[in-house]
Structures are given as structure tokens and as C-alpha cells.
UniProtKB/TrEMBL annotation:
The lineage of its organism: Eukaryota, Sar, Stramenopiles, Ochrophyta, Bacillariophyta. It comes from the Eukaryota. This is RING-type domain-containing protein. Belongs to the sel-1 family. Transmembrane segments: none annotated. It comes from Thalassiosira oceanica (Marine diatom). Gene3D superfamilies: Tetratricopeptide repeat domain (1.25.40.10).
Length: 330
């Protein structure tokens, strides 16, 4: 079937819609197909459609007025296409909070294994810089000058976090929420409901970690009523599109669960290229299983290696060696 019979259903379209429609419906836009004479006529009609702004589409003998369902279907498809375009084209750069405030380099992933928060002011620095600061004999927080010894006691550290919570620091609120979620800290009882309220508040104030966490919680029903649509929404529009790496990876996992391998690979390519090892491993498995192309894997591997290289520094390498020596890990 050519494009002729379909285009009669549409009266006025935007140029973008016409281009999409033409490419989707017209088999003669495929170079390998040779148009026959009658079909060529329809093909020309489609080209006319392609060039009109806005496009008044041909009507050929059919009753006036397009079928409502066809128009609504097309509208929905176009909206979904535009939504996807935004989803896949945004969030390729890591967010501001993923960079060390001293050396300004992106922090290796997962960040909790390579960086720490100064609880006095809730600022994140990489372990390389933390070690370098200590080596220079600085015993105070490099940002707010609070003595390190003050934050070593758990109760004092909790008091510092609570002080930041009063000042509406989103990371402090998220941190306190985590403490309530896991429990076990002196002077603080495990309270899941309170943890959720705090995470919601942190998310509203802009904490991407809190948003990601809530997305996972709603999707799996952890501590909240299970709501997959809400969980998915938290992990897409609000977080992955802002560059949050774990959320982008989570989207890939969700699409894989639904058997949407093409969509899954598109998400995970993005997270792998900023240095997320689990994503790289997933793309490798997808390639082995025939769900990703060799070129995609090769390009992703190169992107991943470049990102890892960019995150290296002398101080970070040294901190890594020291940790390996102390904790026996790489
Ligand atoms: Zn640093
Ligand atoms: Zn501080």
C-alpha cells in the first residue's frame, strides 16, 4: 500500500508531522523500491505534502472531515515521538553535583565509593582531594572550617546534618531520610514513613539522588505503595534527563524487563559513555545476545574508556592504592 490512501485522512499538518508521515508511510521513500506508474502518482502527492507549510493535504474523492480516531492516533504517535526525542537527546552530561568541588573533576561511579560528604556543610569531595587536604595538615573542613574532630562523633555528625536540614539543604534532608530508612544510628529510630516524607522533601528541593531513590521505591513498592507509573516517571522526566547516571541505567533495565531491547540499549549507551561500568557490561551482554551492534559496543567501549581516563588524577590513584591496602579492595 502506498501513501495515497492514508494521506486523505489528514487536512492540515505541521511540516514536521508531514515529514514524519511521509517517511513512515511511503514505501517509495526507500531507494531500493522502484515505483510503478500509478504508485508514482501517489508518491508525488506525498512529496507535495512534504513541501507544504502548513500542509493542506490532498483530498481525493473521500468524504470531507478526517476520521477522528485516525487523527487522534497520529497525534498520539507524534507526541510519543517528540517525547522520546527529548528523552534520548537530553541528560548526556553528568549533573553539577557529580563533580568534586576541589579538583572539579567528575567523580568515578558509584560516587559513594569514591567520595565523601563533609557533614558540616554537605559538600562532596573526592577521596583524592580529601587525602590531599589531610596530607597538607588541614584539620578543618576546607569549605566551612569546622574541625574534622567535631564530625567524627556520630551524635555530633547527626546534629550537624540536622542543622543543615533546618536550613533546607536538600542533600542534608536526603541524608537524614536515609538515616531514618536504615535506622541503627544513636538517638534515631528507624522510621520508614518519616524517611519517605524527608526524601519527598529533598526531591522537591532538587536532590537528584532523592528523586532516583523515590523512583526505585515506587517502582518496586519499597516503603511506599507500589506505583510503577510514578516510579518510571520519577526515573525519566525528572532525573535521567538531568544526567543522573543510575536513573538512566534503571530506565534501560526497565525497558529490558519489558522486552524492549532497542530502547534499553539506547538508554544504557548513554550511561555507559559517562563511565558507568555496569552499563558497559550490559551493552557487552546485549552485543553477545544480538541486541546491540558491534559498532555500538565498540563506540560505547571507547566512550567509557575516555570517561574513566577523564576521572583519573594523581591524588585519586594514590587514595585508591591506600584504600586497597587498608580494606583490601580495588
Ligand atoms: Zn577532588
Ligand atoms: Zn564544612
Amino acid at each position: 500500500m502506498g501513501c495515497g490512501p492514508n494521506i486523505t485522512y489528514i487536512h492540515i499538518m505541521t511540516k514536521a508531522a508531514a515529514i514524519w508521515f511521509y517517511r513512515q508511510r511511503c514505501p517509495y521513500s526507500q531507494p531500493q523500491m522502484k515505483p510503478r506508474v500509478r504508485a508514482r502518482e501517489q508518491h508525488c502527492d506525498a512529496q507535495e505534502l512534504f513541501s507544504m507549510i502548513p500542509c493542506r493535504v490532498l483530498r481525493r474523492g473521500l468524504p470531507e472531515g478526517p476520521p477522528q480516531a485516525a487523527q487522534e492516533g497520529l497525534q498520539a504517535t507524534l507526541e510519543a515521538e517528540l517525547k522520546d526525542e527529548r528523552l534520548y537527546s537530553q541528560g548526556h552530561e553528568r549533573p553539577e553535583g557529580d563533580f568534586c568541588l576541589i579538583c572539579t573533576l567528575p567523580i568515578p561511579l558509584p560516587m559513594y565509593e569514591h567520595s565523601a560528604f563533609a557533614v558540616c556543610c554537605m559538600k562532596r569531595i573526592c577521596y583524592g582531594c580529601a587525602m590531599a587536604v589531610g596530607r597538607r595538615g588541614m584539620l578543618n573542613c576546607p569549605f566551612c572550617r569546622t574541625p574534622h574532630s567535631d564530625s567524627k562523633n556520630e551524635a555530633d555528625a547527626l546534629a550537624m546534618v540536622q542543622k543543615r536540614v533546618e536550613k533546607k539543604d536538600s542533600e542534608a534532608i536526603f541524608s537524614l531520610g536515609n538515616k531514618y530508612y536504615h535506622g541503627g544510628e544513636p538517638g534515631l529510630q528507624k522510621d520508614i514513613q518519616k524517611a519517605v516524607v524527608l526524601r519527598e522533601e529533598a526531591a522537591e528541593l532538587g536532590s537528584l539522588e532523592a528523586l532516583c531513590n523515590l523512583g526505585v521505591a515506587y517502582y518496586h513498592g519499597k516503603g511506599v505503595d507500589k506505583d510503577k507509573a510514578k516510579g518510571y516517571s520519577y526515573s525519566t522526566v525528572k532525573v535521567a534527563m538531568q544526567g543522573h547516571v543510575e536513573s538512566r541505567y534503571n530506565l534501560g533495565v526497565i525497558e529490558t524487563e519489558h522486552g524492549n531491547h532497542y530502547r534499553a540499549v539506547r538508554h544504557i549507551l548513554i550511561s555507559a559513555k559517562v563511565g558507568h561500568k555496569a552499563s558497559l557490561d550490559t551493552i557487552k551482554r546485549a552485543f553477545m545476545g544480538g541486541h546491540a551492534m558491534k559498532e555500538q559496543y565498540a563506540k560505547t567501549l571507547k566512550g567509557y574508556q575516555d570517561a574513566v581516563e577523564e576521572m583519573k588524577s594523581h591524588d585519586r590513584d594514590e587514595a585508591k592504592r591506600r584504600f586497597a591496602k587498608i580494606f583490601g579492595r580495588n
